[in-house]
Automatic annotation (TrEMBL):
It catalyses: 2 GTP = 3',3'-c-di-GMP + 2 diphosphate. CDD domains: GGDEF (cd01949). It comes from the Bacteria. Keywords: Coiled coil, Membrane, Transmembrane, Transmembrane helix. Residues 324-351 form a coiled coil. Pfam families: GGDEF (PF00990). This is diguanylate cyclase. Its EC number is 2.7.7.65. It comes from Shewanella cutis. The lineage of its organism: Bacteria, Pseudomonadati, Pseudomonadota, Gammaproteobacteria, Alteromonadales.
Length: 576
């Protein structure tokens, strides 16, 4: 076990056992736990993922979630993190926390998009399709199940088996008449390829289809076989569901003793949200049994409990719908923000919209003039407000919310003229984030955007009202400080540097460090515009980069002799 390669193979075999022989898999897990301290962090993370899967089958969701949290701290690869997030989503669904489940799905999808390995991508799509199945989001489930089949080769029998089952569930969800045949095809394939748990799930699906059609005897035989299959895996949630279906089945054929027996077994399972649909069926059967036996008082009590669980089912369905709609809305909002990053295109669109609005206002003005001056006034006010809104949009950086390069420099120049006319001080601070390209390359551009917004978020509350804060490049920012000398600028720059370094990045979903380098320049009596201050601050920023980054450098006359600093073609220490 101490051998890394041998244990990797053992974990691969354990993944298969968790789908085919849970009891053996649990024994293997216990054996491997004894060697935990000898494993690499990646192997420890994989072992925690496998143990979480075992806990999920037995309904121990809190333990499963704890193991997945530990796994997330042990691994760094996008492939394994995508698995952790998708399994977390599955566990959150079991706990009926749909908002967190969809948030975990979003994190998994963000990682999967950047994964080139087809096998890992296919496995991730499978888990995501299964999660959407639990959310009753059948269109998305069918979409990702179909993607799996498109990516699968003939030798990928496990993934094909799982995808066939998900396609059958999709057809059941949309009431397709071919559902029974799809479940039978899935069962035959999974059984032939020796995946008994998935074959058992397909078998239960066949039984549910027949029971909905009123073929109770045919459904009963299949459901009893499915019950044996689930009992072999100790899959408590599915065992409870099959007992509920059998209780309903036996009652429909008048076999009341057997119906009561299965209903009683349903009530032995934990009274938590995972079992509410099953207990709703059981109490419905009990109520009908008592009514048939003319025990109307007990029938009434059971009927009340049935209504209670029916309300819980309704509330849960509404929670799923609201969570799903909220997730879709957030995804749309995120896409909108990404599109706004293209500033030139956004500005062009804004200008076109202003022109179209002005043209529309002109036509409406002519039309409404006949109707009265009142409507004309309303139209002009709306047009004016709309134009002002677009003008504000053109001045702001869409990602961070501070001024963009053009607007920031124009305002800084105006303030410089005012300060110079009064003979007061003026200071410029330029800074950019260190190794920003590494953040984008390692964690994706979404994380890079998060870092830029977070830097602005922590600095903005500490900027004076009269100062100007602008984003002048990809990861480069400027601060214009009127009525502040160079010493004050150094103090402000150092405060900003320490606040950036103290940013806690775990909320981004990743763990990394953000630092920045600063260049400071104060106004001299020879300065007639803002450009010399910007040039000197830029040279000071070069010096901060060459001094090891994450520091503050002030422009000094001695820098003029440093060719590396004064040469405009130099790239010294300026790599992101």
């Amino acid at each position: 076990m101490a051998n890394s390669l041998d244990f990797d193979q053992a974990l691969n075999e354990l993944d298969v056992l968790l789908q085919s022989d849970l009891s053996t898999a649990q024994k293997k897990l216990a054996e491997y736990e004894k060697e935990f301290s000898k494993l690499t962090s990646v192997q420890q993370g994989r072992l925690r993922i496998d143990r979480a899967i075992g806990y999920f089958f037995t309904g121990e969701y809190a333990k499963a979630l704890d193991d997945l949290h530990q796994a997330e701290t042990l691994i760094t690869s996008s492939e394994l993190l995508a698995s952790v997030y998708s399994y977390k989503a599955t566990v959150y669904i079991g706990m009926r926390d749909y908002d967190k489940a969809l948030s975990a799905v979003a994190k998994a999808l963000a990682l999967v998009v950047n994964i080139d390995d087809i096998t890992i991508k296919r496995h991730s799509y499978l888990r995501i399709a299964n999660i959407y199945s639990e959310m009753d989001a059948y269109s998305d489930m069918g979409l990702y199940a179909n993607k799996v089949l498109q990516l699968a080769q003939e030798t990928d029998v496990r993934d094909i088996c799982h995808a066939k089952l998900l396609q059958a569930i999709y057809l059941l969800g949309v009431k397709n008449p071919d559902t029974f045949d799809a479940f039978e095809d899935s069962r035959q394939y999974c059984d032939a390829k020796q995946f008994p748990l998935l074959a058992t799930m397909s078998m239960k699906g066949k039984g549910m289809v027949l029971q909905e059609r009123g073929d109770y005897l045919g459904a009963r035989a299949i459901l009893l076989l499915a019950l044996k299959g689930y009992e072999a895996f100790q899959f408590q949630l599915e065992i409870s569901h099959v007992h509920a279906l059998l209780a309903e089945n036996y009652f429909a054929t008048g076999e009341l003793v057997q119906a009561k027996s299965h209903a009683v077994k349903v009530l032995t399972f934990p009274d938590d949200n995972s079992y509410i649909e099953h207990k709703h069926i059981a109490y419905k059967v009990f109520a009908e049994l008592m009514a048939a036996d003319k025990q109307f008082e007990q029938a009434y009590e059971y009927s009340r409990k049935e209504q209670h669980y029916n309300q819980l089912i309704f509330d849960e369905s509404r929670m799923k719908t609201l969570a799903y709609q909220a997730a879709k809305f957030n995804a749309d909002e995120q896409a909108r923000e990404i599109n706004l990053l293209n500033k030139e295109r956004e500005l062009y669109i804004a200008q076109q919209m202003v022109k179209e609005r002005e043209y529309t206002n002109m036509l409406m003005f002519i039309t409404i003039l006949v109707g009265g001056l009142f409507f004309l006034a309303i139209l002009l006010v709306v047009g004016h407000l709309q134009k002002r809104r677009f003008m504000r949009m053109a001045k702001m950086d869409a990602l961070t919310g501070v001024l963009n390069r053009g607007a920031g420099q124009d305002l800084g120049e105006n303030l410089f003229v005012q300060v110079a006319a009064r003979g007061e001080d003026f200071c410029v601070i330029l800074f950019d984030l260190d190794h920003f390209k590494r953040i984008n390359d390692s964690y994706g551009h979404g994380t890079g955007d998060w870092a830029l917004k977070k830097v602005v978020e922590v600095l903005k509350p500490h900027i004076r009202n009269g100062d100007v804060f602008a984003r002048i490049g990809g990861e480069e920012f400027a601060l214009f400080l009127p009525y502040a000398n160079e010493a004050k600028g150094l103090d402000v720059a150092e405060q900003c540097r320490s606040r950036i370094e103290a940013i806690d990045t775990h909320l981004s979903g990743h763990k990394f460090t953000i630092t920045a380098s600063f260049g400071v320049s104060g106004m001299t009596k020879d300065d007639l515009s803002l450009d010399p201050l910007l040039h000197r601050a830029d040279m000071a920023l070069y010096t901060a980069k060459s001094n090891g980054r994450n520091c503050v450098s002030c422009y000094q006359d001695a820098l003029k002799c440093d060719k590396r600093a004064t040469n405009p073609t130099s790239e010294l220490a300026r790599q992101p």
